[in-house]
Amino acid sequence: MRSLTVLYDPTCSLCCKAAAWVSDQEKYLPVNLVAAGSPAARAAFPTIDHEATRNQLTVIGDGGEVYYDERGWLMVLWALRKYRAMAIRFSQPGMLPAAKRFVLWVSRHRETLRGFVP
Amino acid sequence: MNIKVVTYLVYLGISIGLTVWVARTLHKSGRAFLVDAFHQNEALADSVNHLLVVGFYLINLGYVTLALKTEDPLGNAGESIEALSRKVGLVLLVLGGMHFFNLFVFNKLRTRSHVGMAPPPVEPNAFAYAAAPEASFAPVEPRAPGTPTRRKTS
Questions:
Q1: Yes or no, beta carbons of B127 and A71 under 8 Å apart
Q2: Is the ipTM above a cut-off of 0.85?
């Protein structure tokens, strides 16, 4: 894995803040942040369902590996220097279902939650 | 020599002997851990190992000498053995605590150094063969390993 591309929802302010936070962090490998459904995203990944990427975080590795939702988040955390150990911990079989529930809950309530994020 | 002096000398003999034994064990068996933690840099591993052992000696011998004095009456051999057993028991517990703390440090150093090389933690959900994403977007350059960690201010 040499780079990751993150397709985030540009119409969701929580997602944009998360993307800004990710781009600020120190990384082990380059993370390209691309608006989901944009012409750039469609040109780069013609084979994936771009309508679906508006509603679920999608992360694509340089080898074409596609990760959705909690797996996408874990891959992004894995790319960050300060959070790789955390990503490994939450990827254990015992923790993965909880990580999935948490990510889906945040994703479902992202409009409500955006008021709580400074 | 009265019984008190004999008790103290026996206490010092046992405690120092135990400290030396634990320190040598740590030095011998901890080396492999450290060599792995420092990515086969044996010179650095040996140096850290030596420094850890020096710290171990200082703390344990410091405790042993501070804990030498006893207020217990040492009238006969029985009382002397009781006092000795209490003192040596405490030394053993301190040595055990220090030993586990050292193991914890070794392991922490080792796992931390391995995080940077860990493979992706999850399997992908699907595959989409990308048309060279690096060419389409300007990638964010990652910092080289070992550079000082400083947050970007921009």
A1: no
A2: no
